[in-house]
Design brief:
single chain; about 60 residues; mainly alpha; 2 domains; 2 helices; about 90% helix; about 0% strand; rod-shaped
Length: about 60
């Protein structure tokens, strides 16, 4: 009885993990949730960094 329960728990646990990975990949693919926030923040940071670099170059010259 205990062996069959352990096998059942292992199978159900792996199925839940796979379902979670697939759901996470779909959410990241379509930019919903965390993926959308990451892309927005990285796009906003890039021009700010370029402005800081140009200001630093002007100050050194």
């Amino acid at each position: 009885m205990t062996i069959t329960m352990m096998i059942f728990l292992l199978i159900s646990g792996s199925v839940l993990v796979l379902a979670g990975l697939v759901a996470g990949a779909i959410l990241m693919r379509y930019g919903i949730g965390l993926g959308n926030k990451l892309t927005i923040s990285s796009k906003d940071d890039i021009p700010i960094d370029e402005e800081i670099i140009s200001i630093d170059q002007e100050n050194t010259e």
